[in-house]
Amino acid sequence: MSVTTKRGKLLRNTGFYAAAFAAAIFVATPILFALLGGFKDNEQLRENSLGLPNPWNWQHYTDVLVDATFWRQLGNSVFIAVASTFIVVAAAAAVAYVFARFEFRGREGLFTLFAAGMMFPFAVAVLPLFIILRTFEMLNSPFGVILPQAAFGLPLTIIILRSFFRQIPGEVEEAATIDGAGPWRFFLQILLPMSRPVLATVSVLALVGSWNSYLLPLVVFTKPTWQTLPLGVTQFQGEYSSDTAKVLAYVMLAMLPALIFYAFAERQLISGLTSGGTKG
Amino acid sequence: MSSVNSKPPAPAVRIDDSQASSKPAGAGGAPRAKRRGRRPGAATLTVFIAPALVLFVLFVLFPVLFAAYTAFFRWNGLGGLPTDFVGLENFKTLIGDEVFLGDMWRIGLITVLSIAVQLPLAFGLAMLLHQNFPGRTAFRLLFFVPYILTEAVTAVLFSLIFSPRRGFADSLLAGLGFDDRIGWLSDRGLVVFVLFGILTWKFFGFHMILYLAGRQNIPEELYEAAKVDGATGGQLFRYITVPLMGPTVRITVFLSVIGTVQLFDLVYVLTKGGPFHASETLAITMYEQGFVRNQIGYASALSIAMFLVSLVFALIYQRYVLGRDLQGSLTNGGRA
Fold first, then answer.
1. Hey, is the C-beta of A255 within 8 angstroms of any chain B C-beta?
2. Which fold is adopted by the domain B87-327?
3. Euclidean distance between CA atoms B48 and A90, whole angstroms
């Protein structure tokens, strides 16, 4: 491995780049196909599917961007993701705090109960959830998606937060107690602000999970009012099945928010995924 | 429980304590030693626990138990609770159901393909990106992009790429000089392999990131010491990298299998399980039976089967494969 000569290093780097570029082409081709395809018309897609658009056709992208349905679905996705993230992080932080910092009878049993939730595939619950939501007339209500999503996010969020909270030294809490802070003030004014990085991590995981979810919105939102972007894309494909270029523009614009989010929250996302630990 | 993770939209991995992100500033390395046995009032406890517990019981525990209950009935989902108790009938039907058996076969096939192709690809690229060469950050960012895209949206994109009306894949082949039309998604023998290709595209970046993190956790001193002793590159890889990457590899295999068992979004949007169930998954069979044909009891039996498959795999895997990781290289794999 210790290649020291210039020539050797050049060779080595060439090999690296060859492999890396091969993988990059594999990854980028489908996305470029969507991006460029949206700028073509359907005739170009047929006759010139590999080349650059000629001429560049902005019609499909502008059509989607002035489409109220697209913006409504985008707004629904954002609202549902933010609401379920807020609920899961708030509820999980409170209970993780109690698990991490207090002794009480049944603590370990209760924690195990939550942690066992990791083992239930969401698909197991979706039929009963549908029946429950139908019974309580929560179909087509955003909370029919928000609350189950938050509930299924609890186990992982609790496990991560608990293991973080218990690493905060006891002295911090003692100092706060001496200064007269009760459990509430300690939790809200000291523990949570100290935990900002891990709160960011679990929030990003919850946001992404909600943003991507498909099965639950599919069965809960039978009417268009609250339908989210993933549902919207699949329906748009159904409606415009013969207009591939238009669908590609819709696909590309639906991917864009996630790509922008990734650009800004890459660190939290990666650390969440690699450290989203189950140390509990 | 020693923590089984089995929900990949938000995949989770064991780590050791050296992850910077999981450590509060200034906490040094002194976990839990300082915990006090404080006894808060019952009222305070209730307020802190209740929201999470209520959510969890209503929307996780109860539905799962309800699914287990309805699996023993014939039920169309209407009119109060199920009444037509049929015992194990649904499960008996299940083990003779060719669609179900096909689902299980495809879980095995995709698992084998993933371990043989997808994970080695991810591993190789992680080792590559661990090398220091200009531009590697850009490659790393790019390789992770497919993983962050929504499965359903990805599926729409690939259904256009593999469209029967001369999609992009056909044009690409024509550009290379092969002018055949291939029924990418309509050929019963081929569709699983096309699906596997898409799954590889979508998920290799996730495994790559885990391998990269695992590789970065191997102390460089080990390599330096071995080099001083005259080890070759191949020996470094064989005797340091491979064994120390073991825990990470075992976790990714685990996550990959569990993810395969639970596949739904991507496949449902791409093919709806077709043609003739050739790409169907357990979750799709469950969805079709429950939401399309209103066989709620049978669909519940399918979902319980999915849970059991995950659970049995997880238990066996934990016991025989992950067991040693939990004792050694990972800090407190069990409870603290």
1. yes
2. MetI-like fold (1.10.3720)
3. 10
